[in-house]
Write a structure and sequence with these properties.
Chain lengths: ~110, ~110
């Protein structure tokens, strides 16, 4: 059974204080690893898809990396508007309907 | 570009009442469609998914049901709501150009009293 664990559950940062979020996964055949950002009361917003170990993707202050067992979302010099819950999900190669398994998320609060 | 609509945005219903939540997608065709529930401070639980009209797969046994009467319409229903049905309901869709990526709608906040 696919499993996704995100850590830490919550992260408080000062503006400009860089940090990383971890997503550990167990899947027998990885179709893709997905990162989303979710603001309170809203639907998740797609950020990145990573397909193979060693792959990296960047968007503004966010950089996602992937190994065979985990993915990291690095937030460089965060701003208060980066405050959100970040969700990680994995897709299995043989999952019917391209289903995803989500982790519990990391709540990030960036204080000015 | 794709747009996902969910209706209503918020809903307060008494225990035992029926439920109908609607999701419609614009800007793509033949999408995979998904219904998720998110409890407060928790991750996303997949409830149903559909790969085509009339094709529904259930992930969690419960008193909810789903239907897909049109290519870009997905409906979540219940005959009798339970207190435990409260939560944030999200509809997601793939696109014709990104069949492995799910994009989410704005969600429906359901409170069962």
């Amino acid at each position: 059974e696919d499993q996704v664990t995100q850590s830490p559950e919550a992260l408080r940062l000062q503006e400009g204080e860089s940090s990383s979020l971890n997503c550990s996964y167990t899947v027998s055949g990885l179709r893709g690893l997905f990162w989303y950002r979710q603001d309170p009361g809203k639907g998740p917003e797609f950020l990145f898809t990573l397909y193979s170990a060693g792959e990296e993707k960047e968007k503004e202050r966010l950089k996602a990396t992937l190994t065979k067992k985990e993915s990291f979302l690095h937030i460089t010099a965060p701003k208060p508007e980066d405050s959100a819950t970040y969700l990680c999900a994995v897709g299995h190669l043989k999952a019917a309907g391209n289903k995803l398994t989500f982790g519990g998320g990391t709540r990030v609060l960036v204080k000015p | 570009s794709q747009t996902i609509h969910q209706w209503p945005a918020t809903l307060v219903q008494p225990v035992g009442s029926p439920l109908s939540l609607e999701c419609t997608v614009e800007g793509t065709s033949n999408p995979n469609l998904y219904w998720y529930r998110q409890a407060a401070g928790r991750g996303l639980q997949l409830l149903f998914y559909s790969v085509g009209i009339g094709q529904i797969s259930s992930e969690v046994p419960q008193n909810l049901s789903a239907s897909r009467p049109q290519d870009r319409q997905f409906i979540l229903s219940s005959k009798k709501l339970l207190l435990s049905d409260s939560g944030f309901y999200l509809c997601a869709s793939t696109t014709s150009t990104a069949s492995d990526t799910q994009y989410f709608g704005p969600g429906t906040r359901l409170t069962v009293l």
